[in-house]
Amino acid sequence: MTIQLSDILDRPFTFTRRPDLLPCEMRPLWKCSLILLSIHLACRAGSCSLKKIHVINWIIKSEKNSSEFEFWILNQHGIKPEVRLDPTLDRALALLIADGMISKNEDKFTIIDKGLEVSKKLTLINAFELEKTVLLKFKKSLTDANVNKIFQVR
After folding, report:
1. Of 47, 43, 34, 52, nearest to 122 (Cα)?
2. DSSP string, 60-98
3. Which contacts (CB < 8 Å, 24+ apart) does range 106-110 have?
4. For 95, left (φ over 0), alpha (ψ -120 to 50), or beta?
5. Would you write out the chain's pLDDT as a tens digit for each of its 154 residues?
6. Opening angle at CA 54, ends 51 and 59, nearest 5
7. Phi–psi pair at 85, nearest 5 degrees
8. Contact 60/66 with Cβ under 8 angstroms?
9. Strands 108-111 and 102-105, sheet pairing
10. Coil, strand, or helix at residue 103?
11. Distance between the two ends of the chain, CA-based, in angstroms?
């Protein structure tokens, strides 16, 4: 038995829209929550630069990245980690500013009352456990001097 193209096309057909799956790092709510946690747990006085937020985001993305950063911290004369800047991070920062959770003053992003309240709740719930561990592990190493060295040419 052979099937002809006309046999297939002459029958009714429908399309079913299926939800598109997005990786969690592309979801705005997930990214915004992670930024709030990062500023709250790893930044001094609830304030940090865009460079530092990008470094933190890069460290959290994979175990390989956190290992590279840790190796560089122990041997800063070695090869600097190749930090990749994430455009979704910039969009999430814009969302947080628009929602009144963080503010931007010159080159620093500062968590404000509404954002601080949310980040405190995020630290208490059983979520982002791996990320929280990484943030607390590298908190002392994430100085402005170290962040600037990573982005320094030569």
Report:
1. 34
2. HH-HHHHHHHHHHHH-TTSPPP-PPP-HHHHHHHHHHHH
3. 107/49, 107/50, 108/47, 108/48, 108/49, 109/39, 109/47, 109/48, 109/49, 109/50, 109/53, 110/39, 110/46, 110/47
4. alpha
5. 787 777 777 777 777 887 777 676 668 889 999 999 999 999 999 999 999 999 999 999 999 999 999 999 999 888 899 999 999 999 999 999 999 999 999 899 999 999 999 999 999 998 899 999 999 999 999 999 999 999 988 6
6. 125
7. -85, 135
8. yes
9. antiparallel
10. strand
11. 71
- Token look-up 């002809």 returns 4
CB environment 88-123: b (16+ within 10 A), e (fewer) = ebeebbebbeeeebbeeeeebbbbeeebbebbeebe
State the greatest distance between any 2 C-alpha atoms of the chain, in Å, as a whole number: 75
Contacts of 28 (CB under 8 A, 6+ apart): 88, 91, 92, 95
